[in-house]
Fold this protein.
Amino acid sequence: MARVEALHTMCVGHGLCREVAPEVFRLDKWGCVEIVEPEVPAELLERARTGVYRCPAKALLIDEG
Ligand code: SF4
């Protein structure tokens, strides 16, 4: 199963990740990314991957091990 991780200090809070995959990413009250679902189920994998690759700050990692 793929695993996503956030580098919180790099997040600039535009929320592109959340727009793409709100089941996996959300923003906390300070506008910083939070991972809702670190172990990404197969049906969300494509969108989680897109969220990771669209992050302008490179603040997200995905390990598809
Ligand atoms: S897309 Fe990147 S910079 Fe924007 S909220 Fe998500 S993790 Fe943060």
